[in-house]
Amino acid sequence: MKALKSYELRQKYLDFFASKGHSVIASASLIPENDPSVLFTTAGMHPLVPYLLGQKHPAGTRLCDVQKCVRTGDIDEVGDATHCTFFEMLGNWSLGDYFKKESIEFSFEFLTGVLGIPVDKIAVTVFAGDEDCPRDTYAAGVWESLGIAKDRIFYLPKENNWWYAGATGPCGSDTEIFIDTGKPACGEHCDPSCDCGKYVEIWNNVFMEFNRTKDGKFEPLAQKNVDTGMGLERTICMLGGLQSVYETDLFAHVIEQIAALCGKTYGADEQTTRAMRIIADHMRTATFMIGDENGIVPSNVDQGYVLRRLIRRSVRFAMQLGIDAARLSDIAQAYVDQYRAYYPELGANEQKIVGEVSKEVDKFAKTLDNGIREIEKVLRYVQGDTLNGKTAFRLYDTFGFPIEMTQEICREKGYGVDLDGYRNAFAEHQKKSQAGAEQKFKGGLADSGEQTTYLHTATHLLLASLKKVLGTDDIQQKGSNITAERLRFDFNFDRPLTDSEKQAVEAAVNNAIARDIPVVCEEMTVEQAREQHAVGVFGSRYGEIVKVYTIGDVDKQICGGPHAEHTGQLGRFRIVKEQSSSAGIRRIKAVLE
Fold first, then answer.
1. Cα dist. 44→72, 493, 560 in Å?
2. Nearest CA among 446, 449, 493 for reference residue 470
3. Which of 1, 127, 448, 562 could form a disulfide with 161 if both were Cys (CB 3.0 to 4.6 A apart)?
4. 539 vs 432: CA distance, rounded Å
């Protein structure tokens, strides 16, 4: 195997698939637009859902990219050898073009021919079959024809080898590719589904041929697609024969910086190593969240809450290592410097990144002071020698006070903490939160129904109307979330709108609707879109073909769609609420009646 740096693997991947007729497309934002089912872009396919469902992509039927992603479901696992909250996904897609055979052959050629991975180091899994889809003997046969031994081809059930885009939407069986690390098998039935560490997954090829409906049915898609994803971090780790992703060039320099700040040695003991890894991971993720083209800031809701949690966890582990938490902004700066060449939005938002990290660290320092005072107060009334779990959870939920710190302070004062009670209270809180989230995000990932389509078009009219009424072209979209019932639109503005301004915005949108203006879609290069003064986030990679939607003399925007055919389809637009979203950002919620 050939040890590679991160920039080398990115380029080799894109060059290889470009040679196979794939168009190289830019990474989409970490913050999904008009997708109510997820807080962050968790895979390369999320921005491509409309095209997986049959809409034509301007770059063609074969695509590849390096997509920035965030997944926080395994946040408690961060600190081990492979888990990260932010990661880069190398992906290639076929939109109704090639299918299983070509996809597997491309993957095999890249792994063995370009990366030099020995065939006997590769293990694969395929779908075992059930009532929804038969056993995938075809994919297994392709792997075998390429030289993968039968005893390295494993048939696994849906929980392992079936990929869903979300509650609804494109899905299908997959074949997953693993590197055999050489560790001994954990038992007679050891296979890639176990966690013993013998097999590490690096690539997943999803064969999307079904659409999952709201009632759980699997309907054949109009076109069969291939969606693949290779984790940059894990692949570099495996190629280099390293023990963890934190030893790759993506993290090594920051780990050294953290070690210098605390005067401790990485790898000296499990607790120190885990704390260093968590800080390195969380601060990288925070840097990308704040610096994204649709960047966010810490808050108590949605994406901002996740960001806040990551920074505050970093503070806690910095304190554990004896690091002045104010130095976390230096780590954010190190990541900006490392990635700015490949992700120029980080350089453009450099001051914002460092400033927001510093503000949140300062804010949490006050939270810690309040939490400590509250613990000292409640301990005066504790009967016996144990703080009850509900109180411990209240300290966490109300003051943001980590349970580990509560335990430490209680221990110093001769008290224990009812951890079972704390976990029960936490589980109850999660249950309520999940129920609320399920209701909130009930639209599903691929909800491209008529009403959501109309609301999407309404956001274009809303942005144009805000610029007109407020008298400035500096107004930009800072976030959008659409369900079948309403739209939510965030924009930069430093004060609440007056009642008369809201009425004027409503009137401007409704005037455009009443004019029944055709919505015209054109494909052009980014440079041509810029020359035509189209609104959009312009990347640094020119030549890429984009879709530009024009609504008469009202609006011209770069957008992936879908849209109404003419504005008269929308009905009547009404603003339900206008409020603050975060510092300098306002939020409008509106409906079509």
1. 16, 31, 15
2. 493
3. 127
4. 40
Digit-coded pLDDT (tens) for 95-123: 999 999 999 999 999 999 999 999 999 99
Per the confidence metrics, is the pTM higher than 0.85? no
For residue 495, CA distances in Å to 102, 488, 503, 581 come to 55, 18, 16, 11
Q: Given phi > 0 = left and psi -120 to 50 = alpha, else beta, which region is 22?
A: beta
In the chain, % helix, strand, coil (3-state, to 5) comes to: 45, 20, 35
Can you say how many angstroms the Cα of residue 151 is from the centroid of all Cα atoms in its chain?
35
Q: What's the pLDDT score for residue 411?
A: 87
User: Which residues make Cβ contacts (< 8 Å) with residue 584, sequence separation at least 6?
Assistant: 492, 493, 494
CA distance 592 to 518: 18
**How do beta strands 555-558 and 545-551 pair?**
antiparallel
Rounded Cα distance between 349 and 365, Å, is 25
Euclidean distance between the first and the last CA atom of the chain, given in angstroms as a whole number: 60
Q: What does the alpha-carbon distance between residue 414 and residue 435 come to, in Å, rounded to a whole number?
A: 38
Q: What does the block give as tokens for 374?
A: 């509250």
6-40 exposure pattern, b = at least 16 Cβ within 10 A, e = fewer: beebbebbbebbeeeebbbbebbbbbbbbbbbbbb
Which position has the token pair 């301990």?
379
Q: What tens digit of pLDDT does each residue of 81-99 get?
A: 878 999 999 999 999 999 9
User: Can you tell me whether residue 582 is helix, strand or coil?
Assistant: strand
Q: Average pLDDT of 68-79?
A: 85
CA-CA-CA-CA torsion for 123, 74, 34, 158, nearest 10 degrees?
A: 40
Give the separation between CA 178 and CA 343, rounded to whole angstroms. 29
Residue 227 and residue 207: Cα distance in Å, rounded? 7
Give the C-alpha distances (Å, rounded to integers) separating 235 from 9, 163, 423.
9, 21, 36
Strands 487-492, 585-592: pairing kind: antiparallel
- Over residues 472-498, the pLDDT tens digits come to 888 988 878 887 788 899 899 999 999
